[in-house]
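The instructor's notes for this session suggest beginning with a concrete chain rather than abstract definitions. Hand out the sequence below and ask the class to guess, before any prediction is shown, which regions might be ordered.
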Amino acid sequence: MTSPVEAPAAQLRSQAERAMEEYIPQLAHSRPHLVRLAECLSLAAGVERPLLRRARLRFLPRSAAGLEAELWFSPLVEAASEHSLLLDPAAASVLRRRLARRPRQFVQDVRDMTVEAHLGAQPVARWFEDLLWADLFPATSTPEHIGEQLRRVLRAVTATGHAGDETGRWALHYVPRLPSGVRRYDDAWRIQVASCERLGLAPPQDAFARPPGTTASARALVQRDLPVGVLARSDGVVLSRPPVDGARTVTVPGVRTARVEAASVLAPRSAPVLLELAEGQSVHLPFAVVQRLSASGEPLLGIAHAGGAQEVAVASGAVAEGVRYAVLLGDGTIVLHGDDGGERGRVPGGATARGSLSLSTEGAALAWTEEGGAITYEVASGQRQLHGPARLVRFPADRGAGLVRLSFEDGGLLLPRRRVVLDIGLHEDRPVRALWLSADEEWMVLVKESGELWTYGPGLEEWSLDSNVVAVAGSPDGAFLVWAHASGKVYERFSGDTGTTSTDYGTTPWQVTSLAVSTDGQRIAAVGGDSRLMLWERASGSSVPRELRLGFCADRVFALPDGEWAVSGTGGPVELTMDDGRQYVITPDTEALSDPADVPAWLRGEVIAEVRAGRDPVTFVGLAETMASIRAAGVTCLAIGPITPFVRRDVAGIPRDDEIPDSLGDFGGFVSLLMSAHHHGVRVIVDVDLAVSQGADATVPVGWILDSMRQWLDYDADGLRLLDGHGLPVDVLTEVRHLLEGYEDRVLIGMRTTEPPSTAVADFGGTEPNGAACHVVVPDVLGGFGTGVSYSAGLETALVGGPQPLMATARPEPQWGHVLSDGLGPEQQAWALRILLCLPGCPVVPLSLLLSQDPEVAAMLELRREHLALSRGDVDQQDLLPADLLTLVRRHGDETVLCVANLGTVRVSAHVHPRDLRGLGEARLVDLLDGTVVPRSDDGSASLSVEGGAVRWYALLPIPRPLGPGE
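After discussion, reveal the predicted structure:
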């Protein structure tokens, strides 16, 4: 039963109303007729010109017509149009109280005039005026009468169909204008909540205390079950409306918006994140996770941050009043957590990027780099101190020793305790990958960007221990050092009274991303980006580690006191909570994050940039030194070669320098290239030329070919591309496939440019175009991009035979792609590249073309990664636009992108209606390349204008609902 909530009248009056209580008496003293006229209109939902004229002539017959104009433009009016005005809500409330003090018959006459004038008005407007009258004399209006009036509107708002939407819009206009004595009723609040829910709006702020569950019950009055797709990923979850293929479908109560609260199961104390999904929308929600494990591997506590994190730092010593964990979020904010996991404060981010986060041993201070300098922060006082230039900072074990800073401006590594700057031969473009210090700072280890591992002893003696190192750690006393090789090998070097010994702990199942040594120096821990934590007991000397399963993907591990560990990473199970209390737990498959029968996930929709010997004047070393600019151009995958397989019978090992093209450099340079590429997030595929092994020496055993390929994979190449390999026997290809199965996340690409796709698949042992699963077939397009075509003849001639043959071979599966012919001129290549980027699969293009410093190409490469419709979606050629405009529609799940290529040389304008793209009537097109919304015509169609030779991408997005009156 609806019952009013009592509240002191003084607390209910808004600041604006109190201001009007002071202003209107002053105005009445100087302009009494103006205030009297306004009083006579204060019972109306809206004041039309005829009503204004009728009120003046009836209640102020001796006044002039100018009084109407004076009220029209007075401060008592909130808004006025050509035909009507709306009194200010605060002024109307004061005016009604003044009206109530006049003779009752006069007030009744005002009411009768208002009712007569609005007999044909909206039912909600008449209902509003009835409630204003009921509130005017509370003694004569029972709560039951007011409650019945509110219930009438609530029933109208919660009715199905368009009429309920329209009623809700008017209700949201009128309810906030009701007197506080009416708005305090629970049904008045339910009307607002239900109206907002069905219109996809957030409810307004409520000024009254309500019984628990009032808001939720009001939403439930209009909600229905909406299907939402939930896809668990290694870093979090993706929610979509409608559900994308392969996603789990859950039902969420809602009308236009599905409202879901998401929280990490691994961190029960973390606050949930509210997600609101409209139709045709998807949301990717990553989670950064930090978990504390006991010495036996049992989870003790968890911390989670929605949106992901850039870095995590952990204090390794005994923490009393300090913080144990520091998490650097994507916006630059640093969140501090105590030993119990509770949040202890935040360091707000700024406009500049932060990095190299470090916590002191006892957690009393943290440090980071910002704008090329080092900053320290005292947790207790919040005091900051700016230090000298730095690219990397570390707190030593002794807090009073000062901050260890690595910078190029100071000439190297600053060691405050030793009062020395160590020149370690670094340069601006070759930073340090990892730095480790013993507790007494007598021993220091550096892993340079090239992967070289260098140690420095008490006298700063220098030793080089290994190359291709990806992670390093050591015992606190500096007695031994452990490091991980890029191949997955983990080694230890121990220095004691009896000399130096080395231990090989075997090979991990992945490339190690982080190592740690327990505080007592008895155990070694390693993680590698999946859900496993590897632990070695040093006393046992066994190379078989103990494997602990985690509930998320871990990439960093830290040693804590008493043999405990802190592990950080992404993902983990996520709990979804609906408005009606329903809950779902979404758990990613940590056992197999990708289908082993499919190509690696990183290759799906990837653009492969190839560097060919003899064509591109570049070396391995040159590529390594320019990797930052390569990545900045949007390139994330390189194909290097061709390399002749090593097939000599008398020598085993890696290919010799004389077997590598002189234009590419030596094998050591290739190692540097791999290290630099992986540091910048670029994959490297090696082109293997099989023509020599098949022609010059057809009797070469398969084992020799496989040994050569194994060398490249052991040196961390991300895959192999077989050139001229379509003549390999099926048994040889089978052996090659088995070879790659022993390496995680590697790809085998078959290059075929002379036969139809079906023949290329058959060459790799497949029977159907979609049946080749463990490699990528890259067929040329028969009748597609031609050679030797003159650009002056028109851009349309670059597509020999038109776009139809090109579309006939385009496939959305990741094992397909297209290549550019070498005979195209520079302008044709640049244009043809844009066409290839519109198609599904893995385009293969020269690196030099992608490095042309064309910002639009770089933007297109990034857009392909951001929009799955452009990289993994299907493709449909449409005849929606003039013939000069090649029109392709790419769809993936709930995402639709329109690709338009102008095949001519002059600008073409055209119209396309969004409903023709996906059946949506109310939608808009947004130009992905510049972010602008395409103008719409009166009929709702989008007006496109594409320059000659240009390619544009337009995303289909819903149109925001226009606001109704008073919203």
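Then share the key points. The radius of gyration is 36 Å. The chain has a mean pLDDT of 78.
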